[in-house]
Amino acid sequence: MATAAGTTTKWSRQRPLSMRRLGRGAVPYALVAPVVVVMGAILGYPLYSLVRLSLDRYGLFELIQHKGVYIGLKNFGSVLHDSVFWHTLVRTIVFAAANVGLTMVIGTLIALLLVQISTWVRLLVTAGLVLVWSMPPVVAVQVWNWMTNVQNGVLNYVLTELHFGNYFQHNWYTSPFSQLSMVTTLIVWGALPFVVITVYAALSQVPRELVEAAEIDGARSWRVFKDVTVPVITPVLLILTSLSILWDFGVFTQPYLLIGQPHITTGNYLMGIYLFEQGYVSANFGRGAAISILMLVIVAALSVVYVRRMIRIGEVT
Question: Which of 52, 61, 248, 300 is deepest in the core (most CB within 10 A)?
């Protein structure tokens, strides 16, 4: 009887303790739950409506009636059998890779430069970056149009005066490659401030004693950056890369306005322009919804590598 009583007392002590542990373990989930519910409500219904729209034939006539005609997966089938879609997808992936790569490399280099320069010069550079970041894309497009104007563009004038060649009345938009190259310069220019300031903030978290220890051991600047700095700022670089992929893959405003509607062809389509042309210009909203879902899946697939690396880094730390 004494043994049974002791066992009962032991279990009664362990039970409240296990319940307490369970309560403590549930606290983080309880704190995150409101955010998950709100985000689910904000994103869930639009996504549901998009999926439902992609399964309908929904043109101008259906728009007036406020009711589509269910056609199943035919919208997806028509898109996936469209050669323009696949050419546009490949072009967009290459375009996004070029933009993300240039943005991350140049942004990191400028951030490293900010660490080395004096305080007042750093403040001036940072103020200029903030001004660039605050400029609306439509205004930036107008600035680029003025700079690259065939008749009196400042870019042609400067290149000619610097004896890089005769750029008098040179047209920077004669081919799809040159058109998208100009769009790349605009997008990279606009994306640099966010990357530079974020990477600079990450660099300020690199322990100075680790850098000094590496320098004392005789490591050169490149080895210090590779073996000391990069591991510390890797999580930030991964987040910036993932965000840049999201932004650059679906970009629409800059290429559409800079190239101009009269010069938009299937040869310079990006996914954002392809979606606009198929969904809105052609008034085929069901097909446009299908393209949107495919873009969402593709972007998720492109970002999964960086997300997995971020999760692994989080588990290690």
Answer: 248
